[in-house]
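Figure S4 source data
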Amino acid sequence: MPVRILFLGPLQDLVGCPEMQAQAPLDWSGLLDLVGPEMSAVLCEDRVNVACRGQVLAVKSDLLADHGDEIALLPPVSGG
């Protein structure tokens, strides 16, 4: 079963699709390679968060998704 990668909010516009699938296991380095250099630069920004299996990661480089896992890429949030 592949890993499902969801691009939320404006990240979806940047990558050009709402989601991707990747072979498991998928780590941070593999994710950055998969999305390409422009999107990688965006994902490395401090304001972008990464969640795996419903948990926001404190350290993005700790990402390790296995078969059937879902990764959500969360854009910066502004509010009022």
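Figure S5 source data
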Amino acid sequence: MIALARHIEGRPVLLVALLCLTQTCAMAGFATYWSALPVLQPAWELTNTQAGWISGILFGGFCLAVPFLVSVTDHRDARGIVLIGCGLTALGLVGMAVAADGFWSAMAWRAVAGAGLAGTYMPGLKILTDRLAPGHLPRAVAFYTSSFSVGSGTSFALSGMILGMVDWQWTFALVALGPVIGGLAIWFLVRPRQPDQGAQPRRHAFDLRPVLRAPQTMAYVLAYAGHTAELFAMRSWLVPFLVVSMGFSGMTGEIDAAFVAMAVSFIAVASSITGAELAIRFGRVRLISVVMVISALTACATGFSITLPFWLVVSLCLVYAATIQADSSAITAGAIAMAPEGHRGATMAVHSVIGFSGALFGPMMAGAVLDVSGGQTSVLAWGLTYSLIGSFGLIGLACLLLLGRHARG
């Protein structure tokens, strides 16, 4: 195994592929709650706002854990942090299987799983940045961030398939095997390596001030907050949206909706990689600006389309997924490129805490709009909800342009 790990580290393509694979395994249960929501919401008597809170609290746990689990990677090997993250993710999924029976218990175990995500996603990227030459980083970041969508899509497909055979408790228990497999792959196939401290004076591991004081870095961080609010609000409510659309079209079957959600996630992979290449050619800010405006317009069209033929609704969802994800790797690559020297891990921590705070509140705000504007059977309610979701990206774009202009000034 040591020889194999050394062989992988010496070949950037193999290392990127391994980290993408382990992240996909770690995310096996990422979308299980969303896939099971049409079953869990009536069983637990949840309002749309409560269902949105349970969805978003995953990223609440993520944001609470990120400052500790990611910023320390400037001083410690990120490999060990990823192993901790895989363990927390598995624990949160098993807790959902055996102990969740309503709003508060589900909130607690989803938060644990979110802390696990904090220990796998950005620390996994830090494994790459510590081991790859700078010339390999832009495309490596694009492929790795795209593995998030691969993991999400795989989770939708796997959860939907398992839900078709067993109950939701066994579904959560079985997908918990994914992060265990991912952790074992990291343990055996990634060699330990201490990070480069840089030439800057040594600071405390949790000192985030150099990042917070860097306006060009924070411009991308705030843009990411708008992006994640839009992305995860859309994904949180995608399966219920498709199930309601099926009803309007005279179709049935929540599991089919989960597989459509899988396709929506997978199309985002190609979109993210393509967006990264276009950003290299035309510039990050230009690419992000165009994508976020188109994404907002597509969101409005998608929400109000719910009564149209189902194939057309699915087509709009796929287009929306492609636009919403096209700027993801460009934003993350921009934050890393603008990181203060010696503070790349701290930059990833701030990027994650502030960025994923959008994912914490976005699903809940969408659920609240759905509640107050007529509920899931209302066409107007879905139209307003998706219009709100699309506006999150525009807020992120405004932050990017205004703060970036201030930094240049």
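The longest helix spans residues 215-248. The chain has a mean pLDDT of 87.
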